[in-house]
Description:
InterPro entries: SAM-dependent_MTases_sf, Trans_acon_MeTrfase_C. It holds the Pfam family Methyltransf_23. GO terms for molecular function: trans-aconitate 2-methyltransferase activity. This protein has 5 helices and 9 strands. It has helices at 18-26, 62-65, 86-96, 119-124, 134-147, and strands spanning 6-12, 29-36, 47-50, 71-77, 97-108, 151-152, 156-159, 165-172, 175-178. Strands 1, 2, 3, 4, 5, 6, 7, 8 and 9 form a 9-stranded mixed sheet that branches. Strand 7 and strand 8 form a beta hairpin. Helix 3 packs parallel to helix 5 (134-147). The longest helix is centred in the last third of the chain and has 14 residues, at 134-147. It starts with 5 loop residues before the first strand and ends with a strand.
Amino acid sequence: xxxxxxxxxxxxxxxxxxxxxxxxxxxxxxxxxxxxxxxxxxxxxxxxxxxxxxxxxxxxxxxxxxxxxxxxxxxxxxxxxxxxxxxxxxxxxxxxxxxxxxxxxxxxxxxxxxxxxxxxxxxxxxxxxxxxxxxxxxxxxxxxxxxxxxxxxxxxxxxxxxxxxxxxxxxxxxxxxxx
Length: 179
């Protein structure tokens, strides 16, 4: 059985750093970098960067930009749905990934609340909320990927008990699969 060794692993939206720490213990690697917009409790096996991922590439920290085209694995566990500009985020992912790099992510979609209401309810309560359908949200992430040279190779959509769909995204070679 072939076990791949990753040169650099980046955990986008690492939060507490739990996933990055688990990866450091279970995946062969040379370096792991956790990136989040707030600091995490430091773990000796992970380098942490405080960085707002909604920023453009040119606005990112020099430390993160130094990883351009060097990252062999990018992971994100339920964080990318919080970045409103998916195109900008996928541009950053594309810039970070090395040739043959992979991007794997779990992605929750927001429920389409408006689809649950009748037109009478919307009118009666003067509701002006706009939500995207499941297909619109999936299309948004796929379009952002393809627009930045990431090929979506697999999509897996599962309905969780909370009625919120979860998307897992996996990419290779400047490509992307939504599992």
